[in-house]
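3-hydroxyisobutyryl-coenzyme a hydrolase-like protein
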Amino acid sequence: MDVLRADGSAFAASTLKVMERNSPLGMTLALENMKRQHTPGCNTVMESFRGDYTAIQTSICVDELAKGVEALFVTKEKRPQWTVGSVDEVDVELVKQQFVMTESTVPL
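Structure:
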């Protein structure tokens, strides 16, 4: 996001505006998911769906999604109180753990 701030172009400014209203945790989860989709271990559509499905079942995703839905549709807040305040504060190891299937993960 620092690169966008330093860029100064209209595109960078509009992109930054969108990113700043989104959940830092949600954006980090989405980026990690995209990285995982482009690895040798993800060769089929089913493997791709399995990664999405595993991540979305975790409580951290559910909690963050609930905050966004409440802010957008219920309280009409323009700046929801996300779990973390910025992308720099996101615990990357916590994000990676969201893609690990556990015994409580319902199989796809």
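Residues 69 and 94 are 22 Å apart (CA to CA).
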